Task: structure prediction
Amino acid sequence: MDQKLTIALAGNPNSGKTTLFNALTGSRQHVANYPGVTVEIKNGLCRYGEHKIKVVDLPGTYPLTAYSPEELVARQFILEQKPDVVVDVIDSSNLERNLYLAVQLMEMNVPLVLAFNMADVAKARGLEFDLNLLQLLLAVPIVSIVARKEQGIEPLLDVALKAARTCGTRQIQIPFGQQVESQLEKLAPLVNPQSDYARRFGARWVALKMLEGDRQILALPHNSQLLTGVELAIKELERHYHESLDIVIADRRYGFISGACQETVRTTVQVRHDMSDMIDRVLTHHLWGLPIFAVMMYVIFYLTFTVGAYPMGWLELLFGWMGSVMTAHWPAVWPEDVRSLLVDGVIGGVGGVIVFLPNILLLFLGIAFLEDTGYMARAAFLMDRIMHKIGLHGKSFIPMLVGFGCSVPAIMATRILENRRNRLTTMMVIPLMSCGARIPIYALIIPAFFAPVWQGPMMWMIYVIGIALAIVCAKLLRVTVFRGETAPFVMELPPYRMPTVKSLMLHMWDRGLMYLHKAGTVILFFSILLWAAGTYPKAPAEKLIKLDASQRKSVQLQYSITGRVGKMMAPAIKPLGFDWKIGTALIGAFAAKEVFVSQMGIVYSVANAGQRSESLRKHLREDYSPLVGFCIMLFCLIGTPCVATVAITAREAGGWKWAAMQYFGLTALAYILTLIVYQAGRLVV
Result:
């Protein structure tokens, strides 16, 4: 009979925790957000002997202070889910820093095993460990592993299962000095022994967290005697040490770690600049670093949007063929509207999103490679000074840059950001990057209204406006909606490593499946909704007599809900220089930005209208001024993100309120700015 156990993997970022998770679970894993917050945890299954093991990959974190959402989730999972054993994955080539989290887990007295990962890297650096002595000093079992090569996995599971059976009881505790210890002895008896934390981790741990100023623990209901005692203890200890008490406690932990390492770690060679340091001299150079980064991102974009164009074209042909076959073989006795629903709504709508799957896969393959090699941390380091001025972290630059290709993978790429405020802020402004779907609009409008000498500058101006607005909006969001303390962040530059093919493929496919799931649910729903709005109600048959196909489409569009809403919008958008025809096209652009061009073609009864349609450009020149043409581009740049962007924002942000805020906020901004530009332009022209 299977024995079910839960192993939680904890560890610092870049410690190889996720690599170990992939080695244990393979493809038997899924990603979910922890209840109540949009912090990822991964779950997977692993069979070992008679044991069926649930493996949980907790968010990477340095301490367990519950300062950031990631730290809170890691600690809450251990408290609420009570895993049978916690495996702390440690980068053994950076032992002292990584052991800080281990010490905090030891203080919680949970069943614990230390997995000394990257043993090969530590050996190459000339480090040798007396693991037997270190296990005695820490009273925690230690196993040496190399996760990326899947070495030491079975011994680790053996030790973890043994720790789960023995409940990992330890006989030592971290000494914090006579003054702190005497205060802990006074405070521990005052802690409510029936509270969840006290029952799980002990009254001493609760008292220690209160002395550290842990906000979550202090927010719990406590008796007045304990609260008064903590307040007096903090004042007395800080007066004695002349510095903040949380710093004193952290210093004692590091002192304990340093002492243990001095006893058990030996350097066999003189450690000079290793290979990572030598590479960093070039890649993080103050002059060459940014150009090299630009080249790296160009390579990622080339793979994503140039190489990806081939499979994307194949998918477009496939969905086009499916629609043509269904149209050609549709029985005459069957309702024509059902055929239109399947061809235009389902195949056209969902197919139009699925064709981007190759771009999604290639993009995340590139991002996974940059992350796993260690270069992503360098990229964030290079951009951090610039991005910090608008309240974001250097890593935010990556998804914003991806947004020039497509907003959907860019919003998904915000998962590389650890801080929730930074992630949401970045998500909100990504649609301001001119994605590839807007290019057909620019390619139609610019040649229609502007002389060749102005066409390049106009395109450049639109892109610069989007970037400038993204910077301003990000800054405003960080001081208003997402204001608050910025969680301290350690800019860690991990050693360079060669990622495994298995790790890259799992990372890539995991994101691809998420995208397909979204295309088959929310996007399908909106595609059908938009199809129905453009199809019903039907135009009277007598209105369609003696009209060719393109003219029928134009008349039908005017009679449909989309056309009628477009005409209803006319008074509201007239101050922008727009009429009902532009309004109707903007509604269609909610499905996908490039649909604006085909919708304008339908309105003007131009067959096979596209971005290079001179006939359509002629109609636009006859009806509108260059100022209106510029305002169309400005509005399409800022407002009404497409349905795929709205859907993926709701998914990644953890709620429709954020998607609604993005959609209506950007649309309102687009209206206001377009109104100002048009009305000011009329006074000048």
Remarks:
- Strands lie at 3-11, 29-33, 40-48, 51-57, 85-91, 112-117, 127-129, 142-144, 265-267.
- The chain has a mean pLDDT of 83.
- Residues 287 and 305 are 28 Å apart (CA to CA).
